[in-house]
Write a structure and sequence with these properties.
single chain, 382 residues, alpha+beta, Butyryl-Coa Dehydrogenase, subunit A, domain 1, Butyryl-CoA Dehydrogenase, subunit A, domain 2, Butyryl-CoA Dehydrogenase, subunit A, domain 3, 3 domains, four-stranded mixed sheet, four-stranded antiparallel sheet, flavoprotein
């Protein structure tokens, strides 16, 4: 179906991203999967091309284009090549907006050039053991001590935490028994600060290139100068970026589902069963036709939401609707595609196996499908 959300500038960026992914990412992806991380030099190459600095103001080495569509293009091109840029996506779509919105001038001067160049890598530490999606229930805390905060606690499931130079930590700086959402603050912990430790790298079912770790903080002395925004206002800040965070999952889900269909079509045309191509069977045709219709519906939904996001009009409830629909669609589509591969679909050497295992987390992170339903129900007055 026709898509009209991109301009000539976006398509030029697409060409740049496609060339880089085909040359610098795809040939090495299997090796990085085994290593469990993407090398730092890849970020530096992305920075040199200007891909990491699209939204960063020009005075700090960026292009100053606050347009989420460039992020979406990058995801689509990665999926087309049957790879994911999970850590890059997290840095650009989830973490960078906090720096752009809440960093003061001194912080911008300190951090923005490195963020644009890919020499400063980031992570955000929200989730804690035992809290999951309940951010208001977090126990990591920070106590003011002169011009510093003393930060203590533990975080888990932290994407990019292994290589991160800067970690935005959500910590409780005050307690209000009547309002659990009050009193949360964003503190930027820097690599090498005493008391900041990286724990084990978590062994995940999928997303193998995305390093995911546990972090701990034992009376880490964080300067007040490293606080993002006002003390006690972090819950509101987190809510402001949730729509984009959920959209980045939705965009990836549709792009990866589309890639799964493409890979499956190629496979069933070549693979024979009972002496005839699998593509000639009516069941194969019907399955792929139905999946194609689902993905086109999801794409239309995503495209509308992307434009709303760019225009600042995407509501939290609509972002939840899009994430719920697209991630559930991705799960169904990739599962049915794998079935058409038969036994070979279960082999890791085939990209469909990776697409299958990578897809499962989409219904969990950035808010589970169940949480999305709660948000949507509230918008209905229920």
């Amino acid at each position: 179906m026709r898509r009209d959300i991109y301009t000539e500038d976006h398509e030029a960026f697409r060409g740049l991203a496609r060339e880089f992914i085909d040359k610098e990412i795809a040939p090495h992806y299997a090796e990085w999967e085994k290593a469990g991380q993407m090398p730092r030099e890849v970020f530096e190459k992305l920075g040199a091309l200007g891909i990491l600095g699209v939204a960063i103001p020009p005075e700090y080495g960026g292009a100053g284009l606050r347009d989420y569509r460039y992020n979406a293009v990058l995801q689509e091109e990665a999926a087309r090549a049957l790879v994911t840029l999970s850590t890059v996506r997290t840095q650009l779509d989830v973490i960078l907006p906090y720096f752009l919105e809440y960093a003061d001038e001194r912080q911008r001067e300190r951090w923005f050039p490195g963020l644009a160049a890919g020499t400063l890598l980031t992570a955000i530490a929200m989730t804690e053991p035992g809290t999951g999606s309940d951010l208001a229930g977090m126990r990591t805390h920070a106590v003011r001590d002169g011009e510093d905060y003393l930060l203590s606690g533990a975080k888990t499931f932290i994407t990019g935490g292994l290589l991160a130079d800067l970690v935005i930590v959500v910590a409780r700086t005050s307690t209000d028994p009547e309002n659990r959402r009050a009193g949360l603050t964003l503190l930027v912990v820097e690599d090498g600060m005493p008391g900041f430790e990286r724990g084990r790298v978590l062994d995940k079912m999928g997303c193998k290139v995305q390093d995911t770790v546990e972090l701990s903080f034992d009376a880490v002395r964080v300067p007040v100068a490293n606080r993002l925004g006002a003390e006690g206002e972090a819950f509101g800040y987190l809510g402001n970026n949730l729509s984009q965070e959920r959209m980045t999952v939705a965009v990836g889900s549709v792009a990866q589902a589309r890639a799964a269909i493409g890979a499956t079509i190629d496979y069933v045309k070549e693979r024979k069963a009972f002496g005839t191509p699998v593509a000639s069977f009516q069941n194969t045709k019907f399955e792929l036709a139905a999946m194609s219709a689902e993905v086109e519906a999801a794409q239309t939904m995503v495209d509308r939401a992307v434009l709303d996001l760019v225009e600042g009009e995407l509501s939290g409830a609509d972002a939840a609707r899009v994430k719920l629909f697209t991630t559930e669609t991705q799960g169904r589509v990739v599962d049915r595609c794998l079935q058409l591969f038969g036994g070979y679909g279960y082999m890791s050497e085939y990209p469909i196996a990776r697409l299958y295992t990578d897809a499962r987390v989409a219904r969990i992170y950035a808010g589970t499908s169940e949480v999305m339903k709660v948000i949507i129900a509230k918008s209905l007055g229920l």
